[in-house]
């Protein structure tokens, strides 16, 4: 290349140009900037995919713009949007939903019920014993 000549770099769809797109040949016979790189735009599936039946594959990379539709296995409830798109910044919009076990949810509700019953029992015993104690 002769001094003053230029090259313009572009990346294919799904790739991001990292560096300067325009390079000019200098009088010293070098380029004005380092050669840029094309970095693939993709999103990863989460490492922990508890209960997800459809929509994501563990360890798979998804290209920028890819849309996933998530479904949960039986016994799990989807929390979040069932559809998400891979963004340029490697994130998902909206954030990927998660599948929560319905057993875990009912265990939490059961713990609350047991706690309330115990509190009611203590209150009843206390109210029963206070009048007995005052009569003495």
From TrEMBL:
Residues 1-40, 41-101 form the Sushi domain. Disulfide bonds join 11-38, 43-86, 72-99. It comes from the Eukaryota. InterPro entries: SEZ6_CSMD_C4BPB_Regulators (IPR051277), Sushi/SCR/CCP_sf (IPR035976), Sushi_SCR_CCP_dom (IPR000436). The chain crosses the membrane at residues 110-130. Keywords: Disulfide bond, Membrane, Repeat, Signal, Sushi, Transmembrane, Transmembrane helix. Pfam families: Sushi. This is Sushi domain-containing protein. It comes from Myotis lucifugus (Little brown bat). The lineage of its organism: Eukaryota, Metazoa, Chordata, Craniata, Vertebrata.
């Amino acid at each position: 290349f002769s001094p003053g000549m230029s090259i313009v770099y572009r990346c294919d769809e799904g790739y991001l140009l990292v560096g300067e797109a325009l390079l000019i040949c200098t009088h010293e016979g070098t380029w004005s900037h380092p050669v840029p790189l094309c970095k693939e735009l993709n999103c990863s599936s989460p490492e922990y995919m508890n209960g997800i039946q459809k929509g994501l594959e563990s360890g798979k990379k998804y290209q920028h713009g890819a849309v996933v539709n998530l479904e949960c296995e039986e016994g799990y409830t989807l929390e979040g949007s069932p559809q998400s798109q891979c963004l340029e910044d490697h994130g998902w919009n909206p954030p990927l939903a998660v599948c929560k076990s319905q057993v875990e949810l009912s265990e939490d509700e059961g713990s609350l019920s047991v706690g309330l019953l115990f509190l009611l029992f203590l209150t009843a015993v206390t109210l029963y014993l206070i009048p007995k104690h005052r009569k003495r």
